[in-house]
Amino acid sequence: MEPPKSEKTPEKSTSEAPVTVSSAFPPSGCCTNCGGPTISEPPPLASFPEMSPPPNYRPIRAPAINLPHNSQAIILSPVPHAEQVAVVTPPYQFETPIKRIHSPDDIRRFQESASCKNFLGFVVSLSESIRGQKISDPCHISPTVAAIVSILETLLQWIDEIPPAQQSARYGNVSFRSWHERLRERGETLILEFLPEEFKGSRIEIVPYFLDSFGNSSRIDYGTGHETNFAAWLYCLARMGIVKEEDYHGLVARVFVKYLELMRKLQMVYCLEPAGSHGVWGLDDYHFLPFIFGSSQLIDHKYMKPKSIHNDDILENFSSEYMYLSCIAFVKKVKKGLFAEHSPLLDDISGVPNWKKVNSGLLKMYKVEVLEKVPIMQHFLFGWLIKWEE
Fold first, then answer.
1. Which of 32, 103, 268, 272 is in the most buried spot, having the most CB atoms within 10 Å?
2. What is the phi/psi pair of residue 382, to 5°?
3. pLDDT over 90 percentage in the chain
4. What is Dmax (Cα atoms) for the chain?
5. Torsions phi, psi of 56, nearest 5?
6. What is the three-state SS of 244-271?
């Protein structure tokens, strides 16, 4: 059936042509490459699962074909479960954390360790704490949560005080190095302001996670590894009992939302290069966790479904309340062209029937695509709070 003229897909170069069911499998008697008449019969049609597209949205490719290269590992991986964080007790043995992961064997050792399971369980607990909640909903805000939000607001203010340099390069504004240098000079002092006296000695271990949470000053880039360091910093605070389970909702709705605001401003002002991006085949150039937390927010929502991301009115009116919608709106703001072409994986996820499946799938994907990737985890640090188990 010929689509309305207003909905026709713009032409693309042959090297980037979108794959649709009709273009991939021409009518019988036609060449599968050029579409011309043939003598032999073409290969049989492949069967695609039925899926109703969202209103006023015409997908340009068959759904669910843009999974990562190791999609089988994601599918077979069990859904991670929440775990209670094991709080440390005296005597404390804080140490300077170091890198331990250098090979796939190291990744396997980490995946089998209690440290990995407990950290991933902490991420799941944060996700569950925000389930069905809007960002503006009331939540418990402890002095520690308020102090962390204040620190992030200070880092936001520094951006205004250190304007970007005038340069011709598209990525990597050198002024970011000045911002990051100030972070290294004052970061420890900011953290010591809210650390209880008995945990002052932990600064040698937790400050490196904090400093690695905002990008790399040499490469002037940022990615999911840096985001994971921020989660690891919060996890270390939970290990010491400085943040408790009743703070988890506030950690997501107040702390992580403020962190996301800070990182977006850093990305835009200093043009940070995506670190380790999968490009068009990745979930997002910079972030992963807000998609997990945001999908949890929308579980069992009466009206908004995964396909609602294609409704611009919904994005405009509700992105301030739901992180997932905020991420989609930001992607559409910074990337040009058809959404299904520059973000095919997010486009495919919109065809999943409900948010619970989206959330569980993203948790599995985070484990496989972030925590099991050597290029990302080779920079991760291990000390006494997050132990490397031989």
1. 272
2. -130, 135
3. 73
4. 83
5. 55, 30
6. CHHHHHHHHHHHHHHHHHHHHHHHHHHC
